[in-house]
Amino acid sequence: MVDFWEKHIVESLLYTDHIQGNAVLDLGSGAGLPGIPLAIQLSEVHFYLIESREKRAWFLRETVQALQLTNVTVLNSTVTPTSEKIIPNGFTTVVARAFGELRQLYHLLKDQLSENGKIVTVKGEGVDGEIKRLNSKYKHVNLETTPHPNSSTRFFISLSNSK
Q1: Quick one: which H or E segment has residue 122?
Q2: 152-155 contacts at long range (C-beta below 8 A, 24 or more positions apart)
Q3: 3-state DSSP call for residue 110?
Q4: Helix 127-137 and helix 102-109: axis angle, to 10°?
Q5: Do the Cβ atoms of 75 and 48 come closer than 8 Å?
Q6: What is the DSSP letter of 138?
Q7: Which residues on adjacent β-strands are paired with residue 147?
Q8: How far, in Å, CA of 160 to CA of 116, rounded?
Q9: For 134, which of 70, 72, 103, 125 could close a Cys bridge (C-beta 3.0–4.6 Å)?
């Protein structure tokens, strides 16, 4: 149980310092991580948990209802690069846990961001190659790396559209 707590709940809450604004998308929410722990921690922020698989979306809706989280909306949907904005002004923060490469993540979500929005994910070894591939395709992306507090080989990566 300690392993689960450390690996999933504590790890989810480490995103807290990277959340900005009041409209956060948790892409591919799965079991609700990091979205649900963050929604409990940051009750003033509205979280949108997007999950493409119907059974998982059902689980998320049941969990949100059981926890009486009024600041969470569950969406049984997908996001594509050509998707209309999910919310009119875009998301101030998008969190993505265990998603693909940075280049793919940015390509998929750049148009879902608000004017000053950002995408936040955690990456480990090999991130340098991902950063090079991202920069070779998208010259206008702002990228910030922050050391992971619990690991010397992992980093929080924030991506945003440059002004």
Answers
A1: strand 113-123
A2: 153/124, 153/125, 154/122, 154/123, 154/124, 155/122, 155/123, 155/124, 155/127
A3: helix
A4: 40
A5: yes
A6: -
A7: 155
A8: 7
A9: 103
pLDDT tens per residue, range 14-34: 899 999 999 999 999 999 999
Tens of pLDDT, residue by residue over 49-70, are: 999 999 999 999 999 999 999 9
Structure token digits, residue 101: 């490469």
Cα 145 to Cα 29: distance, rounded to the nearest angstrom: 23
Tell me how far apart the alpha carbons of residues 146 and 113 are, in angstroms, rounded to a whole number.
20
Shortest CA distance to 117 belongs to which of 60, 79, 76, 158? 158
Closest Cα to residue 71, out of 41, 102, 30, 33?
Answer: 41
Cβ neighbors of 112 (< 8 A, separation 6 or more) are 25, 79, 83, 85, 86, 90, 91, 94
Per the CB < 8 A criterion, the answer to whether 22 and 45 are in contact is: yes
State yes or no: pLDDT of 42 exceeds 90: yes
Partners of residue 122 on adjacent β-strands:
156
Other beta carbons within 10 Å of 133:
14
Q: Which two tokens stand for residue 90?
A: 């875009």
